[in-house]
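Weekly sync, protein design subgroup
Attendees: M.S., D.O., the rotation student, P.L. (late)

Item 1: inverse folding check
M.S. brought a backbone from last month's batch and wanted to see whether the design step gives back something sensible before we order anything. D.O. pointed out we never logged the input encoding, so this time it goes straight into the notes. Structure tokens as presented (167 positions):
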């Protein structure tokens, strides 16, 4: 399996948006020159994921000040994700990726249910920061629900990268 490295070109993917329209990540980046934080999460049923997404929303002004747009992606079904998005009043897009069209090229870990019992098959948490040149600037890939960076950790990381980034 290919592993991304910082500086690599971010893989493109196309997923259906919340309204059912196709969303191409690279086409989006050509129109939107902000940094993008891809937040892969387990699903609506995961309390740790819900806490992470709520925390990101609570700090949305900080991410906006850092010119960073959040995109959340899960292998969960869109119906569940729409319910979660409404429950937590999430302002950023949430995408369903049941076929792992986005998760697989990014090397997001996948729980297949064989090693231990945990809600069947699902993607695990991961974060990727991508710049306007489609470069991967930072990533954090998890194999379980715990150990994710906080919004404050991400703020510091994005601020540091912006300060030290070579164009």
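Designed sequence read out in the meeting:
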């Amino acid at each position: 399996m290919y592993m991304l490295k910082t500086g690599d070109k971010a893989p493109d993917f196309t997923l259906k948006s919340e309204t059912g329209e196709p969303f191409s990540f690279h086409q989006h980046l050509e129109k939107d020159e902000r940094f993008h934080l891809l937040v892969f999460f387990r699903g609506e049923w995961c309390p740790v994921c819900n806490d992470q997404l709520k925390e990101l929303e609570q700090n949305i002004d900080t991410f906006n000040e850092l010119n960073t747009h959040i995109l959340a992606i899960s292998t969960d079904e869109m119906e569940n994700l729409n319910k979660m998005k409404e429950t937590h009043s999430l302002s950023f897009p949430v995408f369903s990726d049941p076929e792992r069209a986005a998760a697989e090229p990014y090397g997001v870990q996948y729980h297949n249910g064989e090693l231990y019992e945990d809600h069947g098959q699902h993607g695990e948490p991961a974060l990727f920061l991508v710049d306007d040149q489609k470069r991967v600037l930072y990533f954090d890939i998890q194999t379980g629900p715990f150990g994710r960076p906080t919004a404050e950790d991400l703020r510091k990381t994005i601020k540091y990268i912006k300060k030290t980034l070579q164009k």
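Discussion: The CA atoms of residues 57 and 90 lie 6 Å apart. The beta strands are 14-16, 22-24, 35-41, 68-74, 94-96, 110-111, 122-123, 126-130, 136-141.
Action: P.L. to compare against the previous round before Friday.
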